[in-house]
Write a structure and sequence with these properties.
single chain; 2 helices; 16% helix; globular
């Protein structure tokens, strides 16, 4: 469903190990908004929901809600660092277009 680059796995592992609360996984959600119509939302969760899809990706549990799952099929998640800042970016084969920052898309 979702592929994570080595850079994304390293960043997530670092973020998850630095929190003082237990982490059940990373919630990845697609929401309305952003400059292209949909945006990605990421949140470390202490527990999942009963209707979540739980996906193991390099030892990291991804929690994906039912509505977001179809829009996340085949997505590659990366973590980039540069002069302009750092953050997660997404390459989504389901998108008809996306913004330059890689954080929002349209279907």
């Amino acid at each position: 469903m979702i592929t994570m680059t080595e850079s994304a796995v390293t960043a997530l592992t670092r973020f998850m190990s630095s929190t003082d609360k237990p982490v059940a996984g990373l919630r990845i959600r697609v929401e309305s908004g952003g400059c292209s119509g949909f945006k990605y939302s990421l949140k470390l969760e202490q527990s999942g929901n009963d209707d979540d899809q739980s996906v193991d990706c390099h030892g990291i549990t991804l929690l994906i809600d039912e509505a977001s799952a179809p829009l996340l099929g085949g997505v590659t998640m990366d973590f980039v660092e540069g002069m302009d800042g750092s953050g997660f970016t997404f390459t989504n084969p389901n998108a008809n277009s996306s913004c330059g920052c890689g954080k929002s898309f349209a279907c």
